[in-house]
Amino acid sequence: MRHLTVVLAMLALLAASGSGTLARQNPATSPAAEGALADLGYPELRVRVTSDGLELPGEIPAGRVLLTVENTRDVATVVAPIRLADGDSIEDVAAAARGVEGNDALVPYRNAVWAGGEPALPGETTSGMVVTLTPGPWYVLDLSDLGAIPPTLTVTGDIPSDPGEVPNTAVSVEMTDFQFILPDRIEAGTHVWRFANTGEQLHDIHVLKVPDGTEPDDVLRALTRPEGAEPQPGELVVNETMIPMFGFGIMSGGQTIWTDVSIEPGTYVIVTWMDDEVTGAPQLTLGMVSVFTVVGPGEDGVPPASPEPAGPRA
Fold it and tell me: Which of 273, 278, 264 is nearest to 310 (CA)?
């Protein structure tokens, strides 16, 4: 499964359809950005994406930071802070990823710590996500070019014993190996979602709107359909009956992010496009697909539908 190709294609679809405005608001006008995240006082790691690469500060204090992205290019991307494993060099890792397509380009980076990834549509300045950075050398990747040498970010000091105010979270999503665990009731509106990777493998997040009555097996058939195969009558089709809404990634085990989400009532599916690091099978075929319903104020929620994970819960 060609994860990076799919992710960037999804972002392109959002840009073309305008659907991305449902989930990502300009910080100058978004109440969620101003009240829920930006006003908490975390240091801001602002990354500017240009045709020449990424521009960012050289250092930032350790702990929770607000990662925001200003994308001046005409193509979408995902910006991701990583910390390499001891003994790995960025020159060797980038060289191994250079010219490689799809998920295979991620293999040289698998030993790194991924703090999360902020997607940015063309011309967008994102409202940001809260990530946690530990002291030491980090790199900030542009996922559209994993073969490039990324800029260095020095994270200074120690993780604060008091990390500051915790974002007021409306929805918490847990990712295990291999399952999404969601609350039984999710209410429409603009509010903060928390994503925590409690597994050991890398996971990312993609949310698509689907018709009412959709089951996880319907999603699996649509997303594992062989390339070039025609869908059967009534089957789901991406960008027709499965509309990309938003997504975030990539997160290592033990990482948590917070981000603002605007979402309307309806039925949705959350999936990951990462591959299992042991078998190479798509993680969504191992249980990482969940259909959930978003309801209006005062309405009863419907528990999410999720298959049993193929691997043990972390």
Answer: 278
Omega before residue 250 within 30° of 0, cis: yes
- Strands (E) in 86-151, as ranges, are 113-114, 118-120, 129-133, 136-142
pLDDT confidence of residue 311? 62
Query: pLDDT band for position 273 (50/70/90)?
Result: confident
Q: How many CB atoms lie within 10 A of CB 235?
A: 12
Q: Mind listing the pLDDT tens digit for each residue in 24-73?
A: 433 333 333 444 788 788 999 999 999 999 999 999 999 999 999 999 99
Whole-model pTM above 0.85?
Answer: yes
Q: If phi over 0 gives left and psi between -120 and 50 gives alpha, with beta otherwise, what is residue 198?
A: alpha
Segment holding 172, helix H or strand E: strand 169-176
d(CA 133, CA 240): 38
User: Before 178, cis peptide (omega within 30)?
Assistant: yes
CA distance 293 to 314: 25
Which domains, and CATH codes, for the chain? 3-156 (2.60.40.420), 169-295 (2.60.40.420)
CA distances to 74, 94, 216 from 284, in Å: 30, 27, 10
